[in-house]
Design brief:
The chain is of the alpha+beta class. It is built from eleven helices and 28 strands. The protein folds into four domains: 139 residues, Immunoglobulin-like, CATH 2.60.40; 125 residues, FAS1 domain; 93 residues, Cupredoxins -  blue copper proteins (Immunoglobulin-like); 72 residues.
């Protein structure tokens, strides 16, 4: 009888042990950023714990980290259904067996996300990013399933300032030179920043002559461009991907897109999280030119034909003096691009008249920065065209035979009751011949014509006075009021 009781107890113990046998496995462990770290840099750790069998209700899984300011988020997944738990703090997170105790046929896993910052160190050493340990019902650790991930954390003295990193990196030679020229090399001594750093290859994509033009005007043109690459707070990659936009010191709001890598303001981030003692640097593949306020060019063409007229595309997107100009037969128009940041050009209208196609191509004619496009017009007429790229507008080249029309309008006197009811306008048009416009005494001849018109005006005024006298006589004679 005693032997039977012993065998019964042993069998029940085996059943209990078999019921609570479980095995965990840790998969998909990632530490971002990977590689060595510097103190205070944000770190994200993600992993998944898979459980097979039945987890003992009195058992436990513990997670430990040496990151500062840790925040834990975990989700228990049972047969595909997810149960998100509240955010927890502290360097140790424990999940009790009661939360994981399900039937052997159930598929149970835990997805964990940990965020923190790399801790300070007195000397470069490995620190535990995450350690995962399973404990049995007796509080004993199961070392066979333990997983630990570490990262090398460097001491702070080895971290240089943002400008020092840029100035000593060959890929940033243009950026370093530009920062010195704009006197921004010492601007990062205090505060904390994010620098979007274009490489020399990115600067080389600008139109020819742009870099030298910027360096010649460090305060006026260069500095706003550089400030458009600085954000007044440190944003590491883990922060950037959570944002939709970021504002630069220059005031530009840069859109952030993470659909295909990280795009900031249209530039692709090709390297993230170069940590400096006063911020972080992200390397980008193109220069972020600050936008300018588009000013609408007001056509104020001179009606006096000029043998040569230069139409300039300026950097504030105006067109000077106008898109419409007057020239004589044989005159020329020169389009000049004085905008180092934007392409400009001209083309025929979408539905051009045949005459305009003699001088303007349907395909846009691009004018690089600092270059000109010259066209000579040999026939009288109006030739319409459009500007392309920025800004897009239309213009007209009016080619004349040299004739200028000057119109002088002379109203009749208004003091007479007759002229008030039947007022007429006496206009005189003077046509000045092409040879007259080119003679030295042109102004004198115009003055003489104006004098002649003034004398005619005086004659008309006298005629008005005579009419007044006649009206007064008739009033007196007939007793009109």
């Amino acid at each position: 009888m005693t032997r039977l009781i012993k065998w019964t107890v042993l069998l029940l113990s085996l059943i209990v042990c078999i019921q609570f046998v479980s095995a965990i496995s840790v998969t998909s462990v990632t530490v971002d950023p990977s590689g060595s770290l510097t103190p205070s840099i944000p770190v994200t750790v993600q992993f998944k714990v898979e459980n097979s069998g039945v987890f003992p209700p009195s058992g436990e899984i513990q997670f430990f980290t040496e990151l500062d300011n840790p925040k834990w988020t975990y989700t228990i997944i049972v047969n595909g259904f997810e149960n998100l738990r509240p955010v927890m703090g502290g360097r140790t997170l424990a999940i009790s067996g009661f939360e994981l105790n399900y039937k052997a046929s159930d598929k149970v896993s835990v997805r964990v996300n940990l965020e923190g910052v790399a801790p300070p160190v007195t000397q470069t050493s490995n620190k535990t990013m995450i350690m995962i340990t399973e404990y049995d019902a007796n509080g004993k650790s199961i070392t066979s399933s333990q997983v630990e991930k570490t990262a090398l954390v460097m001491t702070t003295p080895t971290v240089r300032g943002c400008y020092a990193i840029i100035a000593n990196d060959p890929q940033f030679s243009v950026l370093g030179t530009s920062l010195r020229a704009a006197k921004l090399d010492t601007a990062f001594d205090s505060g904390s920043f994010t620098i979007l750093a274009p490489t020399d290859t990115a600067f080389a994509q600008l139109p020819n002559g742009t870099i030298s033009s910027l360096l010649k005007d460090p305060e006026g043109m260069l500095k706003p461009v550089l400030l458009n690459h600085i954000i007044n707070q440190p944003l590491y990659a883990v922060d950037v991907v959570k944002l939709g936009e970021a504002k630069t010191v220059q005031g530009t709001v840069l859109k952030i897109d993470t659909m295909d890598g990280i795009m900031i303001g249209g530039a692709k981030v090709i390297k993230t999280d170069i940590v400096c003692k006063n911020g972080v640097i992200h390397v980008i593949d193109r220069v972020l030119v600050p936008p300018v306020t588009v000013k609408t060019a007001t056509p104020t063409p001179s009606t006096i034909p000029q043998t040569s007229v230069t139409i300039t595309f300026t950097r504030d997107l105006t067109i000077m003096p106008s898109t419409t100009v007057y020239i004589p037969v044989g005159g020329k128009v020169v389009w000049k691009n004085d905008d180092p940041f934007k392409p400009h050009g001209i083309a025929a209208l979408d539905n051009p008249d045949p005459a305009s196609l003699k001088y303007f191509d349907s395909a846009p004619q691009s004018i690089p920065y600092g270059k000109t496009l010259e066209v000579t017009f040999n026939e009288v007429g109006k030739y319409d065209y459009k500007t392309v790229f920025q800004p897009e507008t239309t213009g007209t080249i009016i080619v004349t035979n040299g004739v200028v029309i000057v119109t002088k309008t002379i109203p009749t006197p208004t003091s007479s009751p007759i002229t008030q009811t039947s007022a007429t306008i006496i206009s005189e048009t003077i046509i000045i011949s092409p040879t007259l416009t080119q003679t030295p005494d042109y102004d004198a001849k115009i003055a003489a014509l104006e004098k002649q018109l003034a004398e005619q005006n005086q004659t008309i005024e006298k005629q008005g006075n005579i009419l007044d006298q006649i009206v007064n006589f008739l009033r007196n004679f007939f007793g009109w009021k």
